[in-house]
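Structural prep section.
Before we set up the soaks we want a predicted structure of the protein with D-malate in place, mainly to decide which crystallisation condition to try first. Input record follows.
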Amino acid sequence: MRNKVKRGLVVFLTMTIAIFFAFTISHAKDWTLKLSHGDAESPNPTHQTSLKFKELVEKYTNGGVKVVIYANNALGNEQEVAQAVRQGNIEGEILATTNLQPLAPSIGVLQLPYLFGGHEESWKTITATLPEIRSRVLQESGVRIVAIYEKGFRVMSNSKKPVEVIGDLQGLKIRTSKSKAPIETFKAWGLEVIPMAWDEVFSALQQKVIDGQENPYTTLVTSKFFEVQKYVTEIHYTLWTGPLIISEKWFQQLPAEYQEAITKAGAESATFEWKYSTDMIEGTKKDLVEKYNMVLSGPPKDEEIWKEKAMSIWPSFYNDFGGEEWVKKFLEIKAEATK
Ligand code: MLT
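Run finished without errors. Recording the tokens verbatim:
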């Protein structure tokens, strides 16, 4: 009996010491989260949100996890960095949904053309669908989504002419990301686009390899596109949404409370970003006209035609966006969350 008690005590003490050492080692280690994004170090919502996320992570981990921000595609373009995050070579990235979709099909649903009519609808939908999107994307790509941001509608800019009706697209060389949704949507509107990585866009516009591109209003100012673009059309076909992704390999090595801290910081950074972006858009539009002399045409005069053509190709996206069942489920959750 006494031997049994002794043995029990030894096992208990050994386990306590092992847990103590494991805890001490994991907390004594320096954890660094390299966070990449493709926007300038500027008032751009992506950059400001990366700073907010850094502040929150460092606060909630008492400095146990340091976040080092690499802006301006310094570590590679968005699709390349997403691969590196998957492999665990870079810990985190903020990127456009359009640039994650080739690696993680299920997030593509957020890009179905004319899915969202505005901000509130997208925030409610993102909040309600995030758990399912997160788990699907984790399985598909090995990256963990901790937040999904939203920067307003992607608007189309070009250097050649106002685009007011669908026929005006003809003759324009428009760049989109290398992702199915924009490529096929423009095709439905009668235009073959030029798919290109984001970090090449400014110089391609400058050298007139392309005439135009589509990104939010805020990007036109913070990436200085006003220097090489003149006309803007509010095509309303999709919101710029984009996740903050973390390498799952790295995340699983963290102590549990650091994992919680990162999850909490991610959620709070999204609330920050949604408001920051929305507040910025009206002032940006004013600056584009008054300071930078751009011509803003508003929505196309025949917007219904654009919408009809783009929505008619929804079924062609299902296989690339995680399958029809998933798209259906997503739409059901959206309907419930926004009714
Ligand atoms: C793109 O068009 O590739 C992206 O929207 C760029 C970005 O992340 O802002």
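Observations: Residues 32 and 66 are 5 Å apart (CA to CA).
Flagged for discussion at group meeting.
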